[in-house]
Each structure stands twice: as C-alpha cells, then as structure tokens.
Amino acid sequence: MTTKPLSQALEEAYIHSRDMDASLAERLQSFADAVRRLGPHFQEAVDTFVARLREHDAGETAPKPGDAMPLFVLPNEKGQLVTLDQLLVDGPLAITFHRGYWCPYCRINTRALAEAQSEIAAAGGQIAAIMPDQEHFTTGLKDESQARFPI
C-alpha cells in the first residue's frame, strides 16, 4: 500500500474544503480538521503560535468591524495604486485582510467572498481584499477564486 505525500494530501484537502457547498466557517473547519489529521505537527506549531499571539493581545489595536478605516494608497492586482476614497465612491466597503497567497485559509476565504459577491453587491456593498504579496500572487488569487473585487 502506498501513501500519498503529505503535500498532495494537504492540497486535496484544501481543494475539497474550498469547493464545499457549505458556510465559510464549515469550509475552514474542514480544512483545519484535515491539517490536524494529516500533519499534527503543523497544527501543534500553529496552535502554539496562536496562543502566543493571544497571550500578547496581538491585533487588539487593529480597527474593529464598523470602525473608520485609516486612509491608504495600495497597489491592486494590476499594480495600479488605489486609495480608500476611490473604493468608497461606489458605496459601503468591506475590507478583508489576508496573510498571502501561500495561506490556504485565506484562499478558502477569498473563494467564499467571491461566491457571495453578487449578494453583497445587490445589497449595495462591495469588497476589497488586502494582502502583502506581489502582483503575480494577487492576480493568481483573484483568478483562482474567481473574484471580481480588487485585491
């Protein structure tokens, strides 16, 4: 009996979780459960890191939902500079932050947002994602997730 390499098993778990007909929370939990099952040493490291972040109140000073967003100028997936004011011209905006293209949880989240984008637009809202990656990675995420919102 041959076993799959861990990287292949994790990729399959990612694709399964990303493409589930389920809520975002269920998709993320599905992938987290697969990581725990397939690579418990990875999840132990993540759990330790998250515990350290909580212990030091990481993120406590970040804007909360509903807080005014600080003004910014950032490049989009095409390398064009975009300001917060430009994004707000078309109405209310939900901004989501992602660690990067390398993060399967962020990629699952982006897919779920892309799937919900029509409903959000119908309610008068829009989405923008911020992530600290180079243009080819943001373009890759946008293409993979079929997002129509700026990244």
Characterise the protein shown here.
It is a single chain. With 151 residues, the chain is mainly α. The protein is 52% helix and 11% strand. The chain has helices spanning 6-18, 24-38, 40-55, 84-88, 104-122, 135-145; strands spanning 73-75, 81-83, 93-97, 126-130. The strands form two sheets. It has a two-stranded antiparallel ribbon with strand order 1-2. It has a two-stranded parallel sheet with strand order 3-4. It is globular and about 50 Å long. The N and C termini lie far apart (43 Å). The model has no long low-confidence stretch (mean pLDDT 90).
Descriptors for this entry?
single chain, 151 residues, mainly alpha, globular
DSSP summary: helix tally: 6
Shape summary: globular
Give the overall pLDDT as a whole number.
90
Distance between the termini: 43 Å
Task: Give me the secondary-structure topology.
Blueprint: H1 6-18, H2 24-38, H3 40-55, E1 73-75, E2 81-83, H4 84-88, E3 93-97, H5 104-122, E4 126-130, H6 135-145
Give a brief rundown of this model:
With 151 residues, the protein is mostly helical. It has 6 helices and 4 strands; from the N terminus they run αααββαβαβα.
